[in-house]
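so my prof wants the structure for this chain in the tokens format not the other one, which i didnt know existed until like an hour ago. anyway here's the sequence
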Amino acid sequence: MRKISMGLSAMVLVLGIIGPVQADVIDFESGFSDMQAVTQVITPTNAVNFWVGLDQRPAYIATVGLPTTAFVPKDTPVDISVSGNYFLTDEKNGPWTKLPYYMSFATPVQNLSLNLYDYRAVDGGPHIGDSVTLSVFDQAHNLVGMDVYTIGWPNPVNGNIIWLSVMNSSAPITSASLDFSGIGDVGTGIDNISFTTVPLPPSLLLMGSGLLGLAGWRRFRKG
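here's what i got, hopefully its the right format
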């Protein structure tokens, strides 16, 4: 019985080390409130840090609909089936400056995507031809993938919602940025941030397999 227990314990250790690939979505709906500062969100598989601007200001939760607390009156996402009740915005009490969004992951991820709200060539904001770029970086801060949206005509429909994604990064992602060209992001929001946490590397799988082999060898020697 002890010999079998040793083998099972080694198997559990391997499964615990490796773990399955798991997907997460941060939609800011549960546990958040209007105008709450957000610097980190803990998910079932990861810890994600958020900030805006080069001086690392906090991002804020905004509520869809009226009264507007983060956007000017015409800048509210209208498709609540996508946005839900809350999203993340770059400035509290209105858009004043051009601020990029940043995020970092405690554990590397892959297949990063998100919604960007209200990036359009109206209301005194960006112009046709301006663009927004989702860039993703590895642990050494090398660029490993990007997605670019350029404002054309007509403007985005479906509540002014743009979907940006990097599904084939050349290495696991540890950080990402959302940068705006031209005048920039006069009153934007981000939401529905989706990613898949990367399992630990094959070297750990080999280590776990070695533990199983060691358990079997000990059983053979004592058997």
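also thought this was worth mentioning. Confidence is low (pLDDT under 50) at residues 1-18, 202-209, 211-217.
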